[in-house]
Amino acid sequence: MTYRKLLAAALLAATPLAALHAAPPAYITAAVADTTRPADDVALDAERKPAEMLAFAGVKPGMTVVDIVPGGGYFTRLFADVVGPNGKVVDYVPDEMINGSKDPAKALDRLTSLAKIKPNIMPVHDKLLDPAPPAQSDVAWTSQNYHDLHNIPGADLVGFNKQIFINLKPGGVYIVLDHAAAAGSGLRDTNTLHRIDPAVVKQEVTAAGFVFVGESKVLANPADDHTLKVFDPTLRHRTDQFIYKFRKPK
């Protein structure tokens, strides 16, 4: 056994079991328990494990969180509760995704309506590579939509990730949660199965200057063989998902 393995084993042995499975902070459990959350959101909690996700991301009161392509606002509501009145949630959707949707007016209304949830939510839409304000945010987050950014014609995801890098404060984190595609498949399945090879995400994000600092396996599903579309009724809400954490160096 190497010195590094011996040291790791010693540290593990010295760590109380409770510390390895610490409960999420009270401000996270309170957000998940918020009785004003829509019933449809609550029904997804068993599959999406929001308390574990928020704790992994390190979202805290007073932070600014950028929710990239927030969809219906499942995580937006949780972020807004956690960061509280002294924090802010920026819901961002690229103009290319809004204008390329079947009903752009409806897509824009869906985004702007999220501001009605809480006063600390700010919807933003602009071009994918528009310059980002520097050092404004603590956490950037995208859930089940990184692959869709690749479906924008001509999208430069390394360039987009560089804009996120600019916007984050030194030490800020970038979380990418998405449906896993087969290893080695690259971008083949982003528009067909709505999946992405995790290795592509890691390469693109680190190429923008981020450091990969860890992953969570809490949404992994070994029974998913990565061959079905994520909307397939036999698999929906139970896909094999990866959650990567990247950090902007201080």
From TrEMBL:
It comes from the Bacteria. Keywords: Methyltransferase, Signal, Transferase. Residues 1-21 form the signal peptide. This is Methyltransferase. The keyword ATP-binding does not apply. GO terms for biological process: methylation. SUPFAM superfamilies: S-adenosyl-L-methionine-dependent methyltransferases (SSF53335).
